[in-house]
Amino acid sequence: MSNHRSRRSFIGHAAAGFSTLVLSRLAQAQPAPKPALIEHAVAAPVGIEVNARPIPNFEPRDRARTRFGSLDYRGGLVLTSPHRGFGGLSGFRFLDSKGERFLAISDQGTWFTGRIRYSGRSMTGLDDVEAAPVLNAEGRPITEKRLWYDTESLARDGDLVYVGLERVNQIMRFDFAKGGTRARGEVLPTPPAVRKLPYNKGLEALVFVPKGQPLAGTLIALSEGGFDADGNLIGFLLGGPTPGQFSIRRTDQQLISDAVLLPSGDLLILERKFSWFTGVDIRIRAIPLKSIAPGALVDGPVLFKADLGHEIDNMEGIDAHVTADGETVLTLVSDDNFSMLQRTLLLQFALVE
Question: Are 52 and 79 in contact (CB under 8 A)?
């Protein structure tokens, strides 16, 4: 049976109850535990081949539909590679304003750079992809140090790139003006509360606030599953004019997987939820940046929802760019956990309201 047919079979049987097919399909998109050994890390920079298969419809049950909440589906790709180190993509940022050149990071301490190829408005593939190890201050791969591999979050301030390591709850800064992905990272000081976040539920999203926005110069750090006394998700304002801690109201048992700041001043938070009973859900919420302050509890409307009836997987990365026509395009990437049951997806949507 083809992968396309098995996916549709899951959708047809999900409502009827659990079966072997249901269980395997649910496992495909859950945020599975990371392996103890760093078996997919790369030791040196290397150019790799990445193949792409188009995803013409986001909801195969209704192929004419393109509108999903406040987003309009632009297209998507299933990415595969013969290089065993490709996968595990947990952070994604564009390096240009065109939505072409990108920087991504895997959760096994590997940088990926390359360029998205387009035909008109639709993505068709990736070119010039390179994998390189994330380096420490001594110029050695960070994966040589125990637990220093779960690189989950990524932010940019021009040539400065910030990476969050979830298992040790540390943040590293790289100056890409000094060699790009060959740059050596320095560990930044962080409040004790950051390092006390739960093991494997720590730093999951980083966003740098640029000039001209409220909180300019602040690095916003969001935890995946660190909770305050009221069960809401913990966020941190690092540096900037008003450093401190705040909370994001948690609803529907969702956990944070990434975030991006729009020029409009909205912080979009990508969230996900997994259950053996309901499967996998993802959503995007918009939180006004101006509402974020030390001690604040913030919330915002849901712009987008999707589940296993749509072409999603373990979605862990989000970024945005504005086209020459003034259209805001969101790009989402999934972490396949280096599993044969999961996929690396690259999805694009236009924000329509």
Answer: yes
Model confidence over 141-198: pLDDT tens digits? 999 988 888 899 999 999 999 999 998 999 999 999 999 999 999 999 999 999 899 8
Structure tokens at 232: 């809401």
Q: Residues 260-281: what's their mean pLDDT?
A: 91
- The β-bridge relationship of strands 51-55 and 151-157 is unpaired
Helix, strand, coil percent values for the chain (each to nearest 5): 10, 45, 45
Cα dihedral value 269, 275, 281, 282, nearest 10: 20
Share of the chain above pLDDT 70, in %: 90
DSSP per residue, 206-247 = EEE--TTSTTTTEEEEEEEEEE-TTSPEEEEEEESSS-EEEE
What's the average model confidence in pLDDT over 249-262?
96
Predicted pLDDT at 22 = 36
Name residue 350's beta-bridge partners. 72, 329
Distance CA 121, CA 333 (A): 18
Which tokens sit at 240?
Answer: 């900037």
Beta bridge partners of 102: 94, 114
Q: Are 107 and 90 in contact (CB under 8 A)?
A: yes
CA dihedral 69, 32, 56, 123 (to 10 degrees): 90
pLDDT above 90 as % of the chain = 81
